[in-house]
Here is the input.
Amino acid sequence: MSMQSHQENQSFKFGTFPNKYFRRDLEVLREKLKRKEHFAFNKAADGELAIVAGRHINRLHIGNGEFIYEPENPEDEELRAALSAALRCDREQYFLGVACPCCVGEDDARWMREFVNRDESYLTWANIFVNSNYSYYLTSIVPLYQEYEVILVCNQQANLEKLPFSVKKDFRCGLNAWKENRNLITEIKNYIDENEIKNHLFLFCCGPLGNILTHQLFLHSQENTYLDIGSTLDPLLFGEKGYTRGYLQGSANITKECRWNFEAEKPYDVVFVVPEVNRGWILDGICQEIAKFIEGNWRFVYYPTEDIPLAEVYYLAHYSLVGKCLKEYPYIRYSQLLTWYTHPKNTARLEERVVQALNNCTTTICASPQNVKFLIDNGVEKHKVTSILGGADPNLFQPHQREAGSVGFCTAYYPRKNPDLILCVVKAMPHRQFILLGRNWEKYEKFSELRDLPNFEYVEAPYSDYPQYYAQMDVFVSPAKLEGGPIPLIEAMMCNIVPVASKTGFAPNIITHGENGFLFNIDSSVEEVCDLIEQAYQIETNIRDTVIHLSWENFSLEVQKLFAKNSGFFQEKIQGLQEELKNIVQEVKDLKTDKLSLKNRNQELKIKLREVKDKNEELKADRTNLKNKIAALQAEFINFKNKLEDLQADRIKLKGKIDDLQTNRVSLKSKIEKLQQDKRTLQKEKKKLRSEIKLMQASKFWKVREKWVSLKKGLGLVDK
Here is the structure.
């Protein structure tokens, strides 16, 4: 059942073989969550399979500790009965993931499907969330949990802080939870009733206990959604200890797409993928013609309304499907992948995404040789491109004798089909009758003008009726500005109609100008085209003979030659992939060794980290002391700064005093010099005075002596 048909139903269900796909079933669960459906999804992998099959199993040593089942233990048998009931529930909104043949072997997988006894549309893979789907699960499913109020049942050691969604309520369990924590069944039921829990999402990651809880809580209240998600959140819940599974440890399982069918063979030899919008039109018709001559089991799929099943060869009717189909059905890349390249959207440059898509194909078949060079010049690998001219059915398109018949066109409406030229030609040749076979011409803005011309007839007819309209034509005009073929050109020539065609598509490869038709440039005038049409009525060549080799049978045989040619290529490709897988496995082993080394290194780093932490504490204390000292120094600095400012002020004052002293010194120097001058003057005066004194003293002495002598004489004391 296709995704579209699912949407028309009240509830989404899983696909059924051969239209059952690993990614598509996960997308069904995503749609159910987006639509807020109330449903339960339970899953039974190898551990649950062992229990219900009555085999002893001990997984207490795995990961963070799981469960043990001992058949001889009566208590375990009671639990086994509860688990069996959980896996065989047949309620309408109860879905189950079961172990697949590629993971547990075909015998166990077959036994499990017989045991649960459910319609395939209620069953999917137990590994639906993991392996190659795990990345999609993390990016497209987990974000939807944010849109719910979540109730989580998980291990008691789990840490919820790193979950990318909020948990309203969590219930914890421990080792061997399905036995030791059975009380949670009653506890959660009471919680639902007491709090009137509705429209919530219950997530279970607790081993077989999760299976039993999913079942019993769904029976208790069907107004919520219940998912058994297993180990998918372990890295978020347990950190380093959460990488407990191969798909979490980088094993080859991370790219594994689990298989549903029991035989590894592919059910179809060839699957033709046709765009739904082209159903019943030329692209569909080409594929139908190829299929007629294929010996083997083939099927048609109309994309996107139908799913693409497994096949040896895929033929995509139009190159625009390649990128879409590879993204949605990645497994098709492991088969032969061929596509039909009609023409570029423009003649300037091919988009990089188209180049990448075509390089993912085994072979791209071009409608005309000109496009082979165009693709190679734009980066498509040379050995992946070829050209096969289109064809027509010579039994359907029978020749007729040309006798002044109509001028014909055969095309759907597109602007590139040069509709204005058609209108102008019809108007310029009122003496000729024109027939336009096609569809969608009501979209042409001048269609009413064209339709009302008296010499013009517009026909929308089934493809099987085309020969009767070709039988009315003597000249066929292909006026397009850009073409891949066109296929109607071969059909018309097969009916012995003279072609007048623009130099586009394969027209130059099948028309020899002036011999079996005429060619014109895409920018030719209306007059030139009309003149060629008139000339075409004069040609007597048997046009059919020039294209009789271009049959669909020959076209199909050429395509089938590519199938055979590519088969050896794919054997080499498979061997290459196997070798690549071996290398990946070795790399994983090396990574595990590196992981062990890293683990030991991690322990060393943890010890060093503790030392660093201790040292850090010491440094923190030193930092505090240093901070205090810095504060004290800052205080001292402020005091010093204040003192310096005072000293600077004193310095300014002192400078003023020094300047005053300088001034006084100069003045004093002048005074000293004056005093020295006065001193010298005084000294001179003193000397002079001394001289005078001496003279005076001498003069006085002699006067006194004279008086003394005179006195002595008067006394008679004069010496003799």
